[in-house]
Amino acid sequence: MDVRPLQVPGRQVIQTYGEGRFRIAGTVHAGSVLVWPERAEVWPATEARAIGFDSLAVIATAKEVTEILLVGCGVRFLPVPSGLRKALRERGMVLEWMDTGAACRTFNVLLAEDRRIAAALIAVS
Length: 125
Prior knowledge:
- The protein is α/β, with parallel strands linked by helices.
- It has three helices and eight strands; from the N terminus they run E-E-E-E-E-H-E-H-E-H-E.
């Protein structure tokens, strides 16, 4: 699905998602991804049930300061794993948990607002 409402030069705009991949700033990424305003990288997560603080620690310890962490948990919304919201809040991050499509669209809007964000996105078919 095409989710590009805008273009932000030099930023990781999420252009499309689906079929098990993402197109971000012109680069295709197969599988799930972690995205910051300046970069994107492969993320080995394949299902929301497996997401915990350990799988998101790379964001919590990254050089980029993240105030809002968007998690796209797949095709449909699933409950937030127990304790995850609290663990991230203790590190100064607000967790926004939603389906992957909503997370992609929200990331682009917050990116355009120059917010300190990151996204952990489960790939969808």
